[in-house]
Structures are given as C-alpha cells and as structure tokens.
Amino acid sequence: MIGHIHRFLIGRPLRSEEAAGERLPKWKALSIFSSDALSSIGYGPEQIVVTLVYSGLLVYGYFGYASLAVVALLAIVTLSYAQVARANPGGGGSYSIAMHNLGERWALIAAAALFADYVLTVAVSISSGTQALVSAFPELIGKEITIDLVILFGILMLVNLRGIRESSNVFVWPTYFFIGGILLMIGTGVYHALTGTAPLIAEQSLVRQQADWAVVILALRAFANGCSSMTGVEAISNGVPMFHKPEVSNAIKTTYLMSALLGIMILGISFLFMHYHLLPLENVTMMSQLAEEVFGRGWGYYYIQITTMLILYLAANTSYNGLPPLLSIMARDSYVPRYLGAKGERLGYSNGILLLSLISGVLIVVFHGNVEHLISLYAIGVFLSFTIAQASLVVKWTREREKGWMSRTAINGFGACITGIVVMIIAVTKFFHGAWLVMVFIPAMIYTFKKIHQHYLNTAEQLYLSPEDFAEHLAAGPVKSLTIVPVSGITKVLAESLRYAQSMGGDVIALHIYTDEQERIKFEEKWKNFHLGIEMHVVYSPYRSIVQPVLSYVSELEMHKSIYDYITIVIPEFEPKKWWHRFLHNQTGWILRTLLILRENVVVSTLPYHFKR
Amino acid sequence: MIGHIHRFLIGRPLRSEEAAGERLPKWKALSIFSSDALSSIGYGPEQIVVTLVYSGLLVYGYFGYASLAVVALLAIVTLSYAQVARANPGGGGSYSIAMHNLGERWALIAAAALFADYVLTVAVSISSGTQALVSAFPELIGKEITIDLVILFGILMLVNLRGIRESSNVFVWPTYFFIGGILLMIGTGVYHALTGTAPLIAEQSLVRQQADWAVVILALRAFANGCSSMTGVEAISNGVPMFHKPEVSNAIKTTYLMSALLGIMILGISFLFMHYHLLPLENVTMMSQLAEEVFGRGWGYYYIQITTMLILYLAANTSYNGLPPLLSIMARDSYVPRYLGAKGERLGYSNGILLLSLISGVLIVVFHGNVEHLISLYAIGVFLSFTIAQASLVVKWTREREKGWMSRTAINGFGACITGIVVMIIAVTKFFHGAWLVMVFIPAMIYTFKKIHQHYLNTAEQLYLSPEDFAEHLAAGPVKSLTIVPVSGITKVLAESLRYAQSMGGDVIALHIYTDEQERIKFEEKWKNFHLGIEMHVVYSPYRSIVQPVLSYVSELEMHKSIYDYITIVIPEFEPKKWWHRFLHNQTGWILRTLLILRENVVVSTLPYHFKR
Fold first, then answer.
1. What ipTM describes this predicted complex?
2. A453, closest residue in chain B (CA to CA)
3. Which of A25, A333, A482, B410 would staple A564 via disulfide (CB 3.0–4.6 Å)?
4. What gap in Å lies between CA B459 and CA B334, rounded to an integer?
C-alpha cells in the first residue's frame, strides 16, 4: 500500500545507467538558471522602500540612489562571475573553488554561507510567490503559510524526488512569460509617464533630510536590503557543464544577457515605483500595486501576478538544483553525513532534497512566511559566498599567471573588495535585524562540519586493518563463545533454539527467570525430567520483569571478564499468521534485543518461528 | 532522564513480597465501594428530567413515578446482590459467576457488558464531576474537556499506576463529606418545603397528557435514563474478600446501608426538584440549581458542589479497581492479550490501567464530555451484567440445592426477570439514542474474545512438544547453517565478523554489493590479495540500494530450498562514542535487520562494535 503511493508519487526506480548528461541550448539554459536572479525583482525593490518608509525617511529622495547603487553592484558582480565561469568549466560553486585555492577554512565558510543562501532562497521565494498570489486574490489572506507548505512539500519536494529531467521543460516557459510581461509593463508604464500630464516625479517626494550618521546608516541599510534584488546571479557559473559547446563562452554570454535583463528590470520598476509614488501595504505587494496602476485590474494585471508567482516558485526550485549536489560533494569530503551523498532511486540526491525541504519548511513556519524578516537573513550569506568565490579566483590567477592574469586579477579583486564591503555593510546595518543570527549560524555550521570530518577520520582510522593484520586476526582461531538461551516454557521453539545454540560450537546455558518460588521448583523438576544435558540457570525477578534480570545476568558475566570473547543470546522471534496476532504477544523479545544490541561483546541472534495458523 | 520522571511520577518498583492483603472495616469499605453508586445521584435524577423535558411532556407529572420506580428497582437489585455476596465470598463479578454457572457464552456477554460499564463509568463520572465544578465556577465553561483529560490522565491514571494502597485513605473522607452534605441539603430543603408558604408542588406541574403509546415510550425512556442512578450497587459484592471477618455478613450489611442511603437520596432529591420546579439548564447542573435554592450561593452551595465533584471523580476511580483485575482474570483464561494480566512494577495491572484510561479518554473526546449522550450507552451494560449475574445464581442455587435454596432462587429469579425487563426497556426505548451502539459493540467484543482465545489455543498447540519429541529434536544433531557476512570495506569489523562467522561451524560466504563495474573489479582484486580462503559473491545493484540486493540474494537461497536449515546473517552494529555520531552513519544495518528478521529460516546475528572515540 505505502509502496504503491510511493511509486505513484515518486515514480519507478531508475537504473544507474539511465543517468543522463543532457546539454541545454542557451535559450533554455537562460530560463532555467535565471529564474532565481530575475525573480528577485519580485521582492528586491520593495525591500528598499520598506526600509526607507519604516525608518521615517521620505522615501523617494533616497530610493533612486539605492537602486542605482544596486545596479552598479550588479554590473561588477556580473563581470566577476563571468570569470568564475571561465575558471570552473567543470561547474561547482564557491565551496569547490575555495577548497582548491584558499583551503579548508574558507571553503567551509563558503559552504555554510551557501547553505544559508539555498535554504533562504526557498523560504523567501515561496513566501514572495504566495504574496504575489494573495495580492491578486485577497480571499486567500490568512492562508499564506498553508499555501507555502503545499507548494514546498506537495510540489517542489515531490517533483525533485521524481528527478529533475522530467520537469526541466516545465521550467522554460514561465520565465519567458514573466520576462515578456514585466518588460511590457515597464514599457507601458514609462510611455504613460512620458506622455501623461502628471509630473514625472512629484516635488515633495524629493525632499531629503540633512545628512547625519543615522541617515547614512539608514540609506546603507536600504542599499543592503536592495542587494537581495541580485541574489541568484551566480547560478549560471555553477552550471557551465550543462551548456552546449563551447560551454564557457555560451555561459558567459548567457550571464551577460541575464544581468542586462535584471538591470533593466530593476531600473524600470524603480522608476515606476517613484513615478506612481507607491508605498508598501499589508497583504498587497508593490509589484501588484504597480501592475494595477499600469494595466488596471484586468487581464494584464492577473498575467503579471501569476507569472510573478510562478517564477518565484521556480526560483525556489533552483535551490534544489544547488544544495543537494553541494551536499553530495561535501559528503564525499566527509564534512556532512555520508548518506547526503547517496543517489536515491530516481538518481536525485533524495536525502539532500528532504533536508532542504524540511529546513525551509521550518523557516517558513517560524517566520510566518514574512518576506521582510527572512530577507534580513538572506543577503549576507549570498554576498559572503560571492566574496569568497572571487577572492579564491584572485589567488588562482596570481598563482597560475596564465595569459591575461593581470586583468582577471583586477576584475575579481575589485569584485571581491566591493562584495566584501557589501557584506560588512549588511552585517553592520542589519545586525539587529537578523544578520547576527547568520553570524552565529555560520561559525556553528563550520564547527559542525569539522566535528563530522574528525569523526569520519577517527572512524576510518579505528576500522583500518592492513592485509597482514587482517590475516593474523582471522588466524587467531575461532572465537570463544557462550550461548545463552532464555527459557520460559518448554516448547518447539525452545527445542529449535537449543539445537541452534548447540551447533554454534561454544558452551550453552539455558536461563530461566522466575517470579515465584513454587513455580521455580516445578520448572526445575520438569527441566530435569527432559534430560537435556544442558545447564539451566535460574534468576529471581522480584519486580516481575523479564527483561531486567536478563540484562543484569549478562552484565554480571561481562563484568567478571569471562573467558569468552562473545556472549551470544538466542532470542526467538515469532512471525504470526495474521497481522493482529502480533498484539496478542508481549514484546519482551523485541525489547531484549533492542537493549542487548548496545552491549559490548554481546551478539544477539534472532531465530525466527513462523506460526502456521 | 525519562527514567527519573517515570520514577518521580510512578514511584520505585515494588517487590512481589510487598503485595498486601489489607482488610477493611465496614465504615471504610462503605466509603470506598459506594462512591460509584452514591455519586450516581449527581446525574441520575437530572437524566429523568432531561428526557421528559426534551420530549415535550410536562415534567413533574411523570417525574415522581419514574423516581419511585427507580427506587423500587434499587430495592430488588439490592436484595439480589446480597445473594451475590453470599454466593461469591471469593469476589469476582458477573464474569466469574457466569463462567462457573452458565458457561462461556454468557460469561463473555457479561465480560463485554462489564467492559462497557467500566469504561463508561469513567467517562460519565469524570464528565459529571467536571459539570459540577463548572456549574459553581462558570468561568471554566469551555474548558471542560481539558479538565476531564487532566483528571483522567494526570490524576486517576497516575494514582492507579502508583498502586491503590497509598491512595485508599484518600478515598474515605470525601464520600462521608458528600453523604453529610446531601443529607443536610435534603433535610433543609424538606424543612423549608413543609414550613414555607408556597404550595408543596404547584398545580400546573401535575398536568399530564392523555396516555398513548408515545407517552408510554417516553415515560419508559425516562425510567431507563433514571436507572443510571443505581449504577455501581454491585461494587460491594465484588469486593467481599476485602472485608473484616465475617466477610459475607459484613458485606451484606454494608450493601443494605449503601442502598438505603442511595434510596433516601434519590427520593429526597427528586422531591426537591419537583418542589422547586427545577428544569435542566445548559452549563448548570440541576443539583447545582437545587443547592443554590436551598443554601443560596454561599458556603453551603460550594460545599455541595465540591463534594459532588470529588465523589464523582472517586466513582471514576472505582473502575480502576474493577476493570484491570477483570482483564487479568480474562487474560489468565486467554480471552484478552496475556500482558493485560501482568502486574506492573508497582503491583498494579499497569497495562489494564493504561487501556482503561485510553478508551475513556477517547470516549470523553468523541462525546465532547456530554453526560447526556454518554448515559445513553451506559445503563444497558450495567443492567445486562446485573441480569447475567443473577441468572447465574439461579442456576447455581437450583443445582446445589443447599439449605434455603428455594427462597434464594426466588429472590434472584425475580431480580433477574426485573433487570432483564429493564435491559429490554432500555434497548427499545433508547435504541436510537446510542443503545444500538452497545448492541453492536457487545457481539463484536465477544467475537474478538473468541478469536483471541482461539489464537492462544492454536499457539499452544503448535508449540507443544512432548518430552520424547523434545529429546529427539535435540538429538537430530547440529543444524546445517550457511553464514553470510555482508562486506562493504575491508575493516577491523569485517575481520571480527568473519572470525565470528567461521567459528559458528557452518559454511561462510562474504557478500559484496556493487553499483559500479570498475569498483567491483578493484574490490575483487583487493579481496584476492587478502588470501582469506573465504568465498566472496558479488551482486550488482542497479538502483544503488544495498538492502534490496541482499534481500533478493537471501530470497533466492531460500527458494532453491538449499541444503541448509538456517541462513545466518552477521550484521555489525556500531555503537558510537557520542550520541550524535549515530546520525552520521546510515541505517543500512538496522533496516537489513528489521527486514530479515521476518524471514523464515533466516537467523540475524548482530555483532557489536564499540567505537573508542
């Protein structure tokens, strides 16, 4: 039954041979890799306004500058990441680059930052997508978290457990629909603005406060929030091997195209926000307000909202392409549990997919799907990994000194400095808004990674045996073993258990637990009459438990450092004919097994007995 | 940690020798055994009024007659049960009596009826107790179910798991406080009524409808509901062995005293209900209304409410003295799972206590703690067991023909007829109000009891071996065993597993699962270089799972009906140094063990390996 549901939801298992190395044309790659970056305009510009409004600054005096700064930063990061694509034609993100060039410490920092980044991408993108939906359909207000979780567990997780190949075509069109819609909206809006009668940007909104430190901090914080508009630009450089040949040049061209689109959108949207004097409202996104201003509440409006929602959900999906492979690389390097590197039956990294879904789900629930609060945690991880990736390249270029290394070093060095400064701006200006949490989380993650690594090293070391030692170990001859058979009644199962125990070669003891003196005498009498030639020990159980006296008996044998290498306990396991019969037998065998398995030098042997009726 | 909480809540384990056979003086026995019966007036008279009011009959025309009928029935049942005490000085309720005199079928009917009775006593009494509380403190309205469950699981269940002895003195005083309070209230009320100016019973309330069948049915239903006032009168006759000598005469005297008290209370309360023209209200019990009329809302009122609440909760407790011992007797007779007969570490029947609490809790939640709905299920079980107990005695008296058997037969025969008629009245008049549920439940229970009995008989038969067969079985010589050691890497654990396997005497095979051809070739090479002289089989796993190929391999061996009696699989179990290390290893061993344990002829041996760091 469960098997059938599982098969229906996840699909038949795939053989290892079915793993495919599909290549993507540029137009397809653009849509698949850029949903994360482009979807950021769904929340990025609004986050600048939110900061400025809540802090009491008049908005539009600073908003334009913050947007321009974000676009300038985008240009720098794009140039830098074109270099990343060139340096890592094999794919692999900041973690691999840093591991090769800067060493373990920086690689682990990058890994922790990426981990936070991927998880938050899912939480932020799904929450924003749902806000776009709720803005269009206010009757859904209050159901946001339920919708978030259905999208997360009911769709994204399942689709990814089924495997990415089936779904990749699904991802292509929404991105283009979205790009088309947004560009049309910007075009229409700008046309209205230029031909309309209202002033392009009203006078009073340009009023600004006198500069002082508080204003500087707030302006920088607005910029820091705005940086969330460019999360995801690194995606293409991690996916170089999936491009048609020549991979690198195709990937770089696609990166440029994506950044150009993103830049135009940020500028256009920002201009229209200012032109229409939009302000954040509860339950209605600013993008929704803008679409309503431009198109009215008609087909155009709903088109924008639905495509925005779709591309945001798709952006969440990009984390599923990113985190599980990263975890599998780290599992190979022994920094995370090994099973995170195992391919599931559909050839995806199932455990990584489950982990990502689970943590994102917890974040959504804990933060009530509130985008503004999640954003505070978001950008710092992204920019930290930007910085490390570029710093790694600087080291690489200066070490390898290939042709053109100077200009490359300059580009990446400049990029690393700028993004490093952004990290510090975010860390300082948003410290109390959640950045501190990331700054606690990243060291904690690194500590955990190292502990895990140490454990695997210890384990390997303890388990290692050279061929000589191995042969010697086996040549030491058979183990000396004492076999204990717990006895409650004299039955067919006991006969079989004793026969099995006797054929194991060591000594055999029958162990009887009694709770009543009369019963013991009777039982010992009976035992004698069977003439089995097997010694029986009896132990009194004052508290009527069977398990405790057996455990004590075994402990005592262990303590006296007996002459035996192993104490083997034969425990019969009854397999009833009907499932409900199981409830009619006590679980003593199961409990005994569970508690004894943990003992050193105690082997638990489970002997099956199948009832015929 | 869990151990400490457990110890704190339940107390230290008690040794079997600490079991006590405490005897009770009459005054103590009265209070302990009569809380169930006496507390019934907390809901019984009100249930008569409820039926009459809801069915549109003017209340007080019929109310008085219904109450008188209930008291008359009480007298008959009391006389009858005095005989039960005499017939069963060893205690034991309808189940034992019926088993000895009427045979299995009637005993099981009685058992099912008693089961329903005990469970419903808990649900009804707790719900009523909470209603008494809520009537006095209306700010608790809406929290009834929470209070019910806290009383049930937080107090009754825990106190009973600790064992009854500690708590028995706690039970003595509330009963007397309650009796005193109710008698005082009746006295005061009757005095007011006789000396007051208002007419004793107002004219218009005596108006009645013309008799027709609908009216007859409704009047009988009122009577049926009123019968809930006398639930619990059987308690003393089940507890004869706990009285001081001479047990039987003391028990009978106590029964008479209790019934007299109960009769006076029913009559007094009914009279005052009529005098004050009380009607059922939501969230306020009629007892609460009465107490307010008599005493005003002062100390007297709160005294009545609190003692009513306490005695009702105590009444719930009497089921804990009744059902677990009944289940233990039935477990001995193999009609319920055996472990229901096991004494827990505090010498109580812990499993029975847990079962009773669980089912009562479910009833309270499903019926929203609504007394009226629960009552519909209640009385039929009680009167069914009354009837069976007395019918059993009729059989016993006529069979034994001891001195005075004729008068005894007459008393019990009459009692059995009357209570049998009551059963039919309840079954018919309350069929659609829940009696049908009981009439489905009882046959279902009997079917279950029989199925369980059959299973235990089958089991015993299948497991039985005569001494000769037993010796012969063992003499058949050692089992022929094939030992399989799954191999993933060549480690210390593998060396130890192989050594253990080799010393077991049978053939040994190493089994390697591979997912990649290159890896297989390399591994086989390595294996050869170790020169172990142990055969290695390799199996390809196309879906990358380890578990599935091992299972298939074993299945194939089983299918080919190999020459081996048993296939033993040695599975290493790692015990890490720190608890969290456990999460770093996959659970393949555990899964393999769980799935293989169910196979016929497959012995699973778990070999421990303790990491040192």
1. 0.77
2. B584
3. A482
4. 11
